[in-house]
Automatic annotation (TrEMBL):
GO terms for molecular function: FAD binding; oxidoreductase activity. InterPro entries: FAD-bd, FAD/NAD-bd_sf, FAD_monoxygenase. Gene3D superfamilies: FAD/NAD(P)-binding domain. This is FAD/NAD(P)-binding domain-containing protein. Residues 180-389 form the FAD-binding domain. The keyword Protease does not apply. Keywords: FAD, Flavoprotein, Oxidoreductase. It comes from Bimuria novae-zelandiae CBS 107.79.
Length: 439
């Protein structure tokens, strides 16, 4: 037991066993807080995708538990450059090219389409991409067996006369806890309970993404030796293409490097399909990039079995918690964002650090609301700012922000917009939250 903490007279239900739910479980274990994780799926990590964490988020993992950082390092696959770089930025769309394949900047300087315009540097420190399922496996290793119950889809939460929360599951069973922490992702049921169905509803961002992996050997054939080995962003009108190398010897039979491709593309005002990941044809996908450079067309032509991922986000929540019954939202359930600044899961980690430490400081059910309030006051502004600026970043990368295709203004914005995310001192947030808790 933590020598400074008192025995807890409350116990918590964590709904959802994604990155948020499992990281929070580790953070709470540290303080000997009794918890049970309820997951609707039959096991953890059923849905896989790549997730990137920048250096500040990896530092926050370590603050929660060195084991999380070590697990991250075991499964992360970043090929670091010196100095560290987030992306080289290029124009990949030939729509406004002159006869020599150039576009003009404001001052008349020519920029060749496809050539690097500038580099967005990253911060120093361990960072990189992980496969979500692999990272979840590492988190699970840090938890005792039997902490989670599967096939428990939460449908409702009611309150007992004593103030406890009763969780009702789709299989007809119930469970009683002092409070519920909703880590149930973008389609969160707990969010609907804290806000209301309309306020909780995710909205389509107007963008969708294709995702795929290309063997490095193949990428070198049409991109040359250098370009595929470091992260690249190809910007265009209503679309952008990201490629970055991942070191992974397992996917392609011992081949040391692969290129992962992510594409976001604005195509429709609304998304009506109830599914957010749908199959599409290669022809339809290639049609989206018909006006782009040969290199970008080459990247897209090598994306096998393309899926479309519709990108949704939440509108700002007016609160992250309620007291009757006690529910507190965390991670995507509280603030789902588009991926255009690559920080959604990082924000989940920050939430876990702050809430975990606050809950570690209290010992009784009566203090829970105060802890939730302090967490809400500190975390909500930052997390909601990410949602808003991420949406704007999607517009910037696709030359439809206020800067349009003024490349000087574009560069200025791109070079400064990540600082507030990456240079943030999360320990200061915690200090502020602690002051609120003790006030
Ligand atoms: C295309 C794309 C790219 C991204 N890239 C990045 C990136 O590079 N970097 C980054 O930081 N972030 C990225 N993100 C965001 C990141 O993936 C999410 O922020 C993060 O995974 C959210 O984790 P979570 O645990 O809060 O939610 P989820 O991962 O959605 O987990 C929720 C869990 O709750 C369970 N659940 C749902 N409903 C119920 C219920 N009613 N009862 C019980 N259990 C339930 C689910 O089965 C699931 O296991 C990206 C997102 C997308 C869509």
């Amino acid at each position: 037991m933590n020598t400074f903490s008192q025995p807890k007279t409350f116990n918590l239900a964590i709904v959802g066993g994604g990155i948020s739910g499992l990281t929070l479980a580790i953070a709470l274990q540290k303080h000997d807080i009794p918890i049970t994780v309820y997951e609707s799926a039959a096991s953890f990590g059923e849905i896989g995708a790549g997730v990137g964490f920048e250096a500040n988020f990896v530092r926050t993992m370590e603050l929660i538990s060195p084991g999380i950082k070590e697990g991250f390092l075991r499964c992360s696959n970043n090929v670091e450059t010196e100095p560290p770089k987030w992306f080289d930025v290029r124009i990949g769309d030939t729509q406004k090219a002159d006869s020599e394949g150039s576009v003009y900047e404001k001052d008349g300087r020519k920029i060749r389409i496809g050539e690097p315009i500038f580099t967005i540097p990253a911060r120093r420190g361990p960072r990189g991409g992980v496969h979500r399922a692999h990272f979840l496996d590492e988190l699970i290793k840090l938890l005792p067996p039997g902490i989670a119950q599967f096939k428990k889809k939460l449908v409702d939460v009611t309150e007992t006369s004593g103030g406890d929360a009763v969780l009702h599951f789709a299989d007809g069973t119930t469970a009683q806890h002092t409070a519920v922490i909703g880590c149930d992702g973008i389609k969160s049921r707990t969010r609907e309970l804290v806000l209301n169905r309309e306020e909780a509803r995710p909205v389509f961002s107007g963008k969708y993404a294709y995702r795929g992996i290309i063997p490095m050997q193949k990428a070198v054939e049409f991109l040359g030796d250098e370009e595929p080995r470091t992260p690249q962003m190809y910007c265009g009108y209503k679309g952008h293409v990201l490629t970055f190398p991942i070191a992974n010897g397992t996917i392609f039979n011992g081949m040391a490097l692969t290129v992962r491709v992510v594409v976001a593309f604005s195509s429709r005002a609304e998304w009506t399909d109830p599914e957010w990941v749908v199959k599409t044809s290669r022809e339809d996908m290639l049609a989206d990039y018909a006006g782009w450079t040969d290199k970008v067309k080459g990247i897209m032509a090598n994306v096998k079995n393309p899926d479309i991922w519709a990108l949704f986000n939440h509108v700002p929540a007016r609160t992250f918690h309620q007291s009757k019954p006690r529910i507190c939202l965390l991670g995507d359930a509280a603030h789902s964002t588009t991926p255009h600044q690559g920080s959604g899961a990082g924000m989940c980690i920050e939430d876990c650090y702050v809430l975990g430490e606050l809950l570690g400081e209290i010992s009784s059910a009566d203090e829970l609301e105060k802890a939730f309030r302090a967490y809400d006051a500190v975390r909500r502004p930052r997390a909601l700012k990410l949602v808003e600026t991420s949406r704007a970043a999607g517009m910037l990368w696709e030359l439809e922000g206020p800067e349009g295709d003024d490349l000087e203004a574009f560069k200025k914005n791109a070079l400064s917009r990540m600082s507030w995310i990456w240079d943030h001192r999360i320990e200061q947030d915690l200090e502020r939250a602690r002051e609120l808790l003790r006030a």
